[in-house]
Recover the amino acids of this structure.
């Protein structure tokens, strides 16, 4: 479904590339962990798949189509299919928790009735029932992160892209949410997660793609966080 | 956009206006100030224009007649002359009385009445536009029975120059002021949208179409623009009403007659309303556009 | 604040101006527009005031004399009368010539020369202010040898009313415009500071004192204000210079003499510069203050 | 040094308090981990010590003085003594990495010479040498977090308050930074860290204060992340 072919990414004004020639293929329904030290290029790779950034060279194919050639309408469609959890949350500060999650559905033109059903269900799943009316600034760090997760899963996306989705969560919450991602994955949704939660990675025994300094150094089915595990 | 999105947009712009209440009010007030200045200036221009026209229509050609002139024939010709607004016949007797009043002492002129009267009969011709005076005077001078068709050359020349000059000045200043007001309004809206650029970027990443993002901002901007111009036009109207009232009460001068007829005031106020509302709308459009390129 | 902090503030305001270049330029331009409008209006007011004063000083009292009046004694008295700007003696012969010119035909008055002349001798008295005319006329009327001191009551009354009325209008409009300009400038600066409220909050949390945070903003605001007013005063000055030049070239009317003396123009331009710069400074102070309360 | 006495904190408009009667004492030179599930009140407690929030009832004493009675000047002095790592980083977006870290020194009026020495040293310690000229938006999540840590330690503070300082960092980076905090603590600096990194907590055997739903449920010297460890 997603094919990344010899992608390089050099941010303007930077000396070293964030990605220095990465090739990777991800099939529909896969569950992939992206691991690697801070600054390795995990977020950059996710941004390329999400079309938030364009590769400096090489291409990203989505169902055989080069994402660089996407027109405005295709780009929107592409992003609507994805459930993205941003590393920096990117909640709408002006909107309440409910409105933030609902926004993902409003964007695709869902009716208020559907929204009133699905949003509380999604909030329930991430353990935020009761916080609907709060604004993001009135939430703890972990609660904000979970709003971001709820917003990603509420629209039943084709692909979930989660960038460090449990960085501000305690162990139990992290495990529950990872299990949630696994359940959603079992329903056929492709899941790609960039994470530092090595214990979760090791426990779940899914495909692991390891990056280091912009290079793909390891790609294992049923892998683990470390090489020498 | 389907019907859900449309409903969403309407609801959203109201919610956003209420959550950014302070910003919205300030924006509306600033739009109001900009437009009130522009509108005040336009009202001034219209009134000065009117005063000039009144002065112009008071410019007269004095046609001095021979004693044996056929007054009725001349009047008939004047009736058909283009550019003539009206005329008055002043007999030599009346002329003497007028002169006495002008110098302030009628007694001094006693002994000049009747056959001693040195003054000729006279027709005062009022014209429509000062510019046509020289030409008309030439024509009237040619009529049989007219000894001399006279008009303060200097005064008329001056009037024509003042009119041209003021017209150019007001046109230039109006254009400058209007551009300034537009720039102010668009920039104010841009600054208030800038405070929310992050929000716009996030919406874009969530797959919202440009129109979906833009529409609430457009509605918001239109509402603010409309509200601002309402403030501007209403307060301008009230102030103008008071000024007009005090002007008329004072009856300052025959040529300081304020413009009060609706046909000429309406376009100004309506124009301001349309300009402000459009500015709100277009300003939002342009401001948002900048942040939609993510 | 120690010397390091001061150096830091100076460096910081320059860095910040260059990083927020667009915002700074827009702010300066908006300050310029606001002040140019205010300044243009003040120039207008000063010129209208001058025109009125010219018209006023052309208001005359006509003192008609008895044939046996002691002209020199009257002139001596006028020399000592407060409020009198000057006077001209017009003999009855000269009066007749003038009258002939006024009605446009000297031939008509032939036969009235010499002893037949019905006109009296006359002294035209120019006054300094229209308001004093009625009182002065009363005084002159009382001089021996003066038959009648006359002065177009209506015209003078009108002039006085117009002057009072325009003064009130200009004062009101100036105050309104100045308030509007101040509001615009302060709000523009507030909006541009608002874009950085987060930054201010963080600095506060890092233990920065209010002055340490405020100072770069103050410098920035002062610079923007100063730059904006420089634009305003320079372009206003250029436009005014051109308008004055074309006015003088046209020599439109004796009473449309533009104000050109530095003593009266300087306060306006200097006032604008000070106002704009102060506004930049105070506006920043007030805007930042709001976000310092963390 | 820090004494928290029966502190309650109810955010305005909220039904349940973020802290419901917490008492705690921390001595100079201690190393304390604050643990607990997401939304337990860890950040709120840290904000109370930092004087970012005021308690609804109860008091926080610093060296015997009630922080609620701090005047402006005392408040500044208080904050300048602290090295705070914010959960949401709070970097100055308009400033480069170097300027962000330097700001903490400029605030206390340090000379440019001192700044030129200390800032690179601090960046070196958190592994960000070479990123001096980048702006926060040009950094990866973990790099931003490390800028925040560098800014906290550069001024040799009396107390380090770190709210989830390793949420966006990989395992190795996390361990190194926790070791850095431990070394700084050995120099006499009091360190208070709110964290979900249970492995680090368990490994370091420091004092652990556990919160849950605003209640202090455990306070152990040489404790661990879980109760039943
Ligand atoms: N917008 C940008 N401009 C310039 N450089 C960037 C930008 N975004 C990221 N980088 C750089 O690219 C490199 C990779 O960043 P990326 O965000 O992909 O790392 P990461 O693997 O997600 O790290 P982390 O685990 O810390 O989030 C880093 O060195 C970072 O400094
Ligand atoms: N500014 C605020 N206004 C209202 N409620 C708030 C505010 N800040 C926090 N809260 C609420 O107080 C509770 C405790 O928040 P706090 O940030 O202390 O949690 P935390 O222990 O730091 O959690 P996390 O591990 O997720 O960061 C949460 O339920 C949160 O929703
Ligand atoms: Mg990342
Ligand atoms: Mg927290």
């Amino acid at each position: 479904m997603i094919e990344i072919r010899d992608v390089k990414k050099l941010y303007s004004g930077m000396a070293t590339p964030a990605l220095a020639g990465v090739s990777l293929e991800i099939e529909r329904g896969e569950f992939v962990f992206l691991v690697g030290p801070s600054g390795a290029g995990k977020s950059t790779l996710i941004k390329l798949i999400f079309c938030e950034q364009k590769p400096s060279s090489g291409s990203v194919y989505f169902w055989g189509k080069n994402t660089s050639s996407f027109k405005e309408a295709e780009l929107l469609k592409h992003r609507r299919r994805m459930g993205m959890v941003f590393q920096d949350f990117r909640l709408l500060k002006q909107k309440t928790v409910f409105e933030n999650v609902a926004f993902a559905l409003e964007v695709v033109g869902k009716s208020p009735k559907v929204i009133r059903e699905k949003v509380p269900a999604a909030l329930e799943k991430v353990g935020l029932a009761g916080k609907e009316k709060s604004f993001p600034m009135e939430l703890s760090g972990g609660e904000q992160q979970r709003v971001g997760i709820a917003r990603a899963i509420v629209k039943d996306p084709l692909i979930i892209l989660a960038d460090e989705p449990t960085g501000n969560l305690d162990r139990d919450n992290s495990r529950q949410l990872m299990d949630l991602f696994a359940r959603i994955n079992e329903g056929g949704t492709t899941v790609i997660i960039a994470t530092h939660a090595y214990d979760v990675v090791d426990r779940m025994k899914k495909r692991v793609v390891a990056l280091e300094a912009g290079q793909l150094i390891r790609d294992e089915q049923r892998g683990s966080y470390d090489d020498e595990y | 956009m389907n019907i859900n999105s449309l409903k969403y947009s309407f609801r959203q712009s109201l919610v956003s206006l209420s959550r950014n209440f302070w910003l919205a009010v300030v924006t509306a007030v600033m739009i109001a100030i900009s437009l009130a200045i522009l509108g005040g200036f336009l009202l001034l221009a219209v009134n000065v224009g009117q005063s000039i026209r009144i002065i112009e229509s008071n410019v007269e050609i004095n046609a001095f007649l021979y004693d044996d002139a056929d007054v009725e024939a001349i009047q008939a010709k004047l009736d058909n002359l283009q550019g003539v607004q009206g005329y008055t016949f002043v007999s030599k007797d009346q002329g003497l009385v007028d002169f006495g009043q002008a110098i302030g002492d009628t007694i001094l002129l006693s002994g000049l009445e009747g056959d001693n009267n040195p003054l000729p009969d006279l027709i005062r011709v009022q014209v429509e536009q000062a510019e046509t005076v020289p030409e008309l005077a030439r024509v009237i001078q040619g009529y049989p029975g007219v000894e001399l068709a006279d008009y303060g050359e200097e005064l008329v020349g001056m009037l024509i120059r003042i009119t041209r000059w003021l017209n150019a000045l007001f046109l230039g200043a109006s254009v400058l002021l209007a551009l300034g007001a537009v720039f102010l309004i668009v920039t104010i809206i841009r600054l208030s949208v800038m405070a929310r650029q992050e929000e716009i970027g996030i919406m874009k990443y969530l797959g919202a179409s440009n129109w979906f993002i833009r529409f609430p901002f457009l509605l918001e901007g239109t509402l603010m623009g409309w509200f601002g111009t309402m403030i501007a036009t209403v307060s301008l109207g009230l102030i103008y009403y008071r000024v007009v009232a005090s002007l008329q009460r004072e009856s300052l001068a025959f040529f300081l007659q304020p413009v009060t007829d609706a046909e000429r005031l309406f376009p100004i106020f309506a124009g301001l309303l349309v300009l402000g509302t459009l500015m709100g709308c277009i300003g939002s459009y342009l401001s948002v556009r900048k942040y939609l390129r993510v």
Observations:
- Residues 60-151 of chain C form a domain with the Alpha-Beta Plaits fold (CATH 3.30.70.3040).
- The radius of gyration of chain C is 31 Å.
- Chain C touches chain B through 49 residues (CB under 8 Å).
